[in-house]
Amino acid sequence: MPTKSKSNKKASGLSSLGKTTVVESPKITKSAETASTKANDEPEVTTSPALAISSESSLPLSSEQTKKAITALIKHIEKKAAEEAAATTGSNKAGSKKRKLNLLSDDPSNPEDSEKQALYLVIGSKKYLSDKPVMKPQRITVPHPIYNLDTTSICLITKDPQRMYKDILLGDENSPVKDRIARIVGISKLKTKFKTFEAKRQLRDDHDLFLADDRVVTMMPELLGKTFISVKKMPVPISVLNPAAASALETAVKVSKARASKKRTAKTSSPEEEFAREKAAISSKRVNAEITRTLNSAMVFVPAGNSTTIKVGFSTFSVDDLAENVEAVIGGLVSKNIVKGGWDGIRSIHLKTKDSISLPIFLTEKLT
Fold first, then answer.
1. Cβ neighbour number for residue 177 with a 10 Å cutoff
2. What pLDDT, in 10s, does the model give residues 258-301?
3. Helix-strand-coil split of the chain, %, nearest 5
4. 310 φ, ψ to 5°?
């Protein structure tokens, strides 16, 4: 019964749209003074472009309220994990042979991962973020990487032929991405080997992060479907080509197509020449830079609606680190004008986990 009353109390806070305060969370030990002290000790964080816009002076967001919400969510996760552990111990004593998987965990295959859950920032806007869903996520740099730089399993989806990209990116001993990319999948292989729902789900669960050549990323929604969209694992578009070579390649392709369509007598490029040109344009250094940038960013999927959910970290992060990521993401949303009207276009900001209620950290006073 006490748990129910707390939930009702938190839920009632959602209706007070005229205020920027949120429900008090129990036993908050971190103070706003601590946050400001840390910011002064770490000038490299406060001077980053994303955080410069999200400072207290420019955004009416309370760092203290953000930390209270984060602390409450972490305690919620720890409590649920303890309850699940106790229930499992009891069922094992009763003769149960299998432990039930935590389907809300970020790694359902690992039942021990119940204490590590993602925290999400839920942004509500006054106007639609877009007229139609944008499947290419935007990247906002965060001070504390959401993905582990050393252990993240990455799958790269490329144009055909798949073998060419494997040889250059994974086959070359000097390639900087040789040990960073776990798998490369070509478009034709994606259409055949991963056609069924079960195969797509297995591919999705095998890797933490998916990247796609920006020339084929528009094909991903149709090829991967709800299996990836529902868990926000759609591939992030990256450029796999050297910029100068990519520009030359694009020009050559346009000229070749124009000649073919007008049936000119001039000789067009042969498939062998086009293959050689594209092979020379592939840059492992460019891919490595794109991977590093992506690993250090939060992904924003822009829907055809007035709310979006953004992963800002995990419950294993410190409260201060999560709060700094939250401020960086909000600053990025404002500076990139992802939310129309910038800060004035934001109606509400909440924090939640997959199975918790949303805790408000900002509610606007202006509804229009």
1. 23
2. 666 665 555 555 666 777 777 888 889 999 999 999 999 998 88
3. 45, 15, 40
4. -130, 130
